[in-house]
Design brief:
mainly alpha
């Protein structure tokens, strides 16, 4: 089977020009997926759009260049997954969005509390927020890989978030790093503010899922 012209096997023959083209292609893919994610989130009025948009973005980001081309391109993969997973992704994400709303309310109340109760609640709120984010990222990766029902996806996502400390640490570091980049370079947000952290986090989680389920077909 002939490989993708910009695949790793072709890099030695193409030299620096080929590697530069591959890098540009990867950057463009991140920008495109980021724009698709933003459009998908807006199309669902944010609340109903974030989870299906994230799932669709991950379904693109987990594929290599050959896989994206074989399945019709990033835009078609995204739109197809967005429509197919809209209901299931929102049912899976509903408890997470509710938890996020409660944590936001807690964060607004915390400045008005007195120490040491406030300090303890800050730690608990921060830990809960990290767990919600981790569970959400694992959930969209599972949605992109499996066809299980929302309750099963959410239960499995929570289990992985709690029992895979190395993966969880890598995901948190990736998200924090991208947040720092966004704070320093605001232009990063419209370019790859969602696609880059989602891509890194989904790859880390996907690697863990491969060890747990080695028989599952690759993307």
């Amino acid at each position: 089977m002939t490989g993708h012209p910009l695949s790793g096997d072709a890099q030695p023959a193409l030299g620096w020009a080929g590697r530069a083209m591959q890098m540009l292609g990867a950057v463009w893919s991140l920008v495109l997926v980021n724009l698709l994610f933003l459009a998908g989130a807006v199309a669902g009025l944010v609340v109903l759009g974030v989870m299906p948009a994230a799932t669709a973005a991950v379904s693109v980001l987990l594929r290599d260049a050959d896989g994206v081309d074989r399945d019709g391109g990033a835009t078609r993969i995204f739109l197809r997954t967005y429509r197919r997973e809209f209901r299931r992704a929102n049912l899976t994400g509903a408890p997470l969005l509710a938890a996020a709303a409660l944590l936001t309310a807690d964060a607004l109340v915390l400045p008005h509390l007195r120490a040491p109760a406030a300090a303890a609640l800050v730690v608990l709120t921060a830990a809960a927020a990290v767990l919600v984010v981790l569970t959400g990222v694992v959930a969209v990766t599972l949605l992109a890989r499996y066809d299980d029902r929302p309750a099963a996806v959410l239960r499995y996502a929570l289990g992985i978030a709690l029992t895979a400390p190395l993966t969880a640490t890598g995901v948190v570091l990736a998200l924090v790093s991208c947040g720092i980049i966004a704070a320093v370079l605001p232009v990063f947000v419209p370019l790859a503010g969602a696609s880059l952290p989602l891509g890194i986090a989904a790859r880390l989680i996907d690697r863990r899922l491969r060890t747990l389920d080695p028989g599952h077909p690759d993307h």
